[in-house]
Design brief:
binds pyridoxal-5'-phosphate; 12 helices; 14% strand; 2 domains; Aspartate Aminotransferase, domain 2
Amino acid sequence: MTVKPHPTLIPQPGILDIAAYVGGESAIPGANRVIKLSSNENPLGPSPRATEAMTGALGKLAAYPDGGHAALRRAIGEVQGLDPARILCGNGSDECLALIAQAYAGPGDEVIHTEHGFGLYKINAQMVGATPVQVGETDLTTDVDKILAACNERTRIVFIANPNNPTGTLVGRAELARLAENLPPRALLVIDGAYAEFVRGADFDAGIGLVESRENVVVTRTYSKIHGLAALRIGWMYGPDHVIDALNRFRPPFNLNALALAAGEAAMRDVDYVERCSVLNEVWRDWLSRRLTEAGAPCTMSHANFLLADFGTRERAEAADAFLKARGLIVRRTASYGLPERLRISIGDEEGCRAVAASVAEFMTREGASA
Ligand SMILES: *Cc1c(COP(=O)(O)O)cnc(C)c1O
């Protein structure tokens, strides 16, 4: 839909340059049973304790929720070993990212994101009238030297996801520290840890220690991925007190509803459930990665709950996507991330992984036969 701009009622600079975020597809016209592997959701859903807590909160919906999120911040603090005073909760981590952009960047400022970084970083920069600066990666991995080379006195925010979406790759501990250490004085490093809980046995630092030891790092996290609560919209961030104080001055006072607060607290405390989901994800990620690679669609080394599979050309990736759709399997095209020859496939449950492995193998065999 193309809408003609109004002659006098004109949005702020940058707004009409934004190409709206498009999420993973969730339905196939005409199909009544689909397996959705397009949005990196938890195929097992939330902890039963979260569902139970939410049900318990249903009787109290007439009252405003706690705008200070005290119980939820206490639970996050206890489980993660953090100071609750420096935790801020958002309506999804998307809201945390937006609040950071609103507070720290504006017209004339630059906001850095990486070549294949999460699409919302650029939108957040444009939303506040700042200039988004895209920095190249190396081997589909965040490159600290390239980011530092792109920094200048106008740089206000550097957004990176670690592990990154849609590549699944990560920056190791020492590199992350080097990035934080060498940023210009006016730049804030935002480490988006949406997939941090899925990393196992790698040289990985979620960035919490950097928040503690420095003044220029914040970490964002979400309940939408491993906690299986994407529909409730719960995110949080951990940062230095001066950042948390700034954002708390203008964030919407009741940005988390009572059901989200109740479920979020219970889900955070169910550490066994989170661990089980992370273990299972690793098992099926390794299995599916091997199968796709054997079939001729090699995957990057993913540390998250999805794989980025390489089909060689845009045409073949599109054909594979259509082939999977016809079998009720929805995956994510990555052309908008500058990766038209690939598809991002979320790690489903056993049934989902087996279905997608079989369909990709069948597709590649047919391709080979017709080539
Ligand atoms: C999914 C995702 C998020 C989560 O956003 P929510 O608003 O918490 O649902 C954040 N960052 C990245 C990189 C993601 O892939």
